[in-house]
Here is the input.
Amino acid sequence: MTQVGCFGCLESKAEVRVALGHARQYLRADGRFISVTWIQRTYDGLRAWNGPVSAELSLEWLVNACAESGLSVHRGEALRTRDPHYDGMVLIEAVRSSGR
Here is the structure.
């Protein structure tokens, strides 16, 4: 399952946690989840692809939120972006834990 940009569109970290829970539930055991989220350190309210939560997201937070949701992160990277409207991207590759 692939998700691109959507977590940054959400209003709060609580909504991100709910979305991660839905992703985990959707996957079969050992199913793979790949996520790319654009980060906008100062949310300006103008970008259709981002919401207020974008300014609060980080690689560390997303990795921890994945683990709390029952997703085992195999790869996590904070990446630069060429898009001048965003400060960076967070790439997460996770697998649904077999035991949950």
Q: What stands out?
A: The mean pLDDT is 85. The two ends are 18 Å apart (CA to CA). The first strand starts at residue 2 and ends at 4. The domain at 2-96 is CATH 3.40.50.150 (Rossmann fold).
